[in-house]
Write a structure and sequence with these properties.
This protein is an alpha+beta fold and 260 residues long. It is 35% helix and 19% strand. The protein folds into two domains: 78 residues, OB fold (Dihydrolipoamide Acetyltransferase, E2P), CATH 2.40.50; 113 residues, no CATH class. The longest helix is centred in the middle third of the chain and has 19 residues. It is elongated, with a radius of gyration of 21 Å. The N and C termini lie far apart (42 Å). The chain binds zinc ion (ZN). Belongs to the RecO family.
Length: 260
C-alpha cells in the first residue's frame, strides 16, 4: 500500500491522522448515490464494519476489484460520524476472482458470507474475530477446491453456529445428556436425542449420517470424503434447517443446499 501523506484534505486537518488500518473479507455491497457503494466487511480485529467507498462503481476507480464480495483486502479507513469511509485498499487474497468461474463454489461462498453477516451483526469483537478466522479458512478452502463446495459449506455452517453459541450435539442426547449413538435428529433440540427424549415425528438418521454430521462439525475430512450422496443430502438438509431455526431472517443463498 502506498504511504498516504499526512496533509490537510477535504477541509479537515484530522482527516488522515484519525485513520486506521485493518483487513477483512468483503461480505456484500450496496449501491449508494451515483458511483458509490456501502461495503460490509468482516474484519480480523474490528468486527463487522459498514463503510462507504466513494466512486467505486466508476471503471477508473482506484479501488478496482478490491471491494468485491469474498475478496480478502487490506483497508485504510477514516471514522465518520455516521459511517466510516474507505480511503485505501490493497488485495491480500483475490478469492473473489478465484470463485467467480465455478458455480457451486460461488454459491457456497455466497451462503457463507450471508451467514457470517447475520451472525456478526451484533457480535462482540472476540466472537467476530473467531467468525472471521473460520470464514477466511472456509473461503480459502473453497478457492483452492479443497473439498466439495457443499461439504465445505455444511461444515462451515455447523462451526459458525457453534461459535455463535448454538453448537449441535451428535455424541450424546442433546436433551438428557445420556451418552452413546442416538439416531433421532431434532432441529429444535439441537442434535441427536435418545429414544426416551425424541418427540413424535422426529426424523430418524442412520449411524452413518450422525457420524457424518459429527465429522463435519469436527472438520474430520477423511470421514466426510467417504460419505455417500444420500447421507450427504440428509446431513446438509439438517444443517440448513438448523441454521434457519436460529437465524431470524431467511437466507436466500441457502438454496444451494437443496442440491445435496
Ligand atoms: Zn435423552
Amino acid at each position: 500500500m502506498n504511504k498516504t501523506p499526512r496533509k490537510r484534505s477535504r477541509g479537515s486537518g484530522t482527516y488522515i491522522s484519525q485513520s486506521y488500518r485493518t483487513h477483512g473479507i468483503v461480505l456484500r455491497t450496496y449501491k449508494l448515490a451515483e458511483a458509490d457503494r456501502i461495503i460490509v466487511i468482516l474484519t480480523a480485529d474490528h468486527g463487522q464494519i459498514r463503510a462507504v467507498a466513494k466512486g467505486v462503481r466508476r471503471t477508473t476507480s482506484k479501488f478496482g476489484s478490491t471491494l468485491e464480495p469474498f475478496m480478502h483486502t487490506r483497508l485504510q479507513l477514516v471514522p465518520r460520524r455516521n459511517m466510516h469511509m474507505i480511503v485505501q485498499t490493497e488485495t491480500i487474497h483475490p478469492y473473489g476472482m478465484m470463485l467467480t468461474n465455478d458455480y457451486d463454489s460461488f454459491g457456497a461462498a455466497s451462503a457463507m458470507v450471508e451467514t457470517a453477516e447475520q451472525l456478526t451483526r451484533d457480535e462482540d469483537i472476540t466472537g467476530a474475530s473467531q467468525q472471521y478466522r473460520l470464514l477466511h479458512g472456509a473461503i480459502a478452502a473453497l478457492a483452492r477446491r479443497a473439498a466439495s463446495p457443499i461439504m465445505l459449506l455444511t461444515s462451515y455452517l455447523l462451526r459458525a453456529l457453534a461459535i455463535a453459541g448454538w453448537a449441535p450435539t451428535f455424541d450424546e442426547c442433546s436433551k438428557c445428556g445420556v451418552e452413546g449413538r442416538h439416531n433421532w435428529l431434532s432441529v429444535p433440540l439441537g442434535g441427536v436425542v435418545c429414544d426416551d427424549c425424541a418427540p413424535p415425528q422426529t426424523p430418524y438418521a442412520t449411524d452413518d449420517v450422525v457420524a457424518l454430521l459429527a465429522a463435519l462439525l469436527a472438520g474430520d475430512w477423511k470421514v466426510v470424503s467417504q460419505a455417500e450422496p444420500a447421507q450427504t443430502r440428509q446431513a446438509t438438509s439438517f444443517v440448513a434447517q438448523y441454521l434457519q431455526y436460529h437465524l431470524e431472517k431467511t437466507l436466500q443463498s441457502l438454496s444451494v443446499m437443496d442440491q445435496g
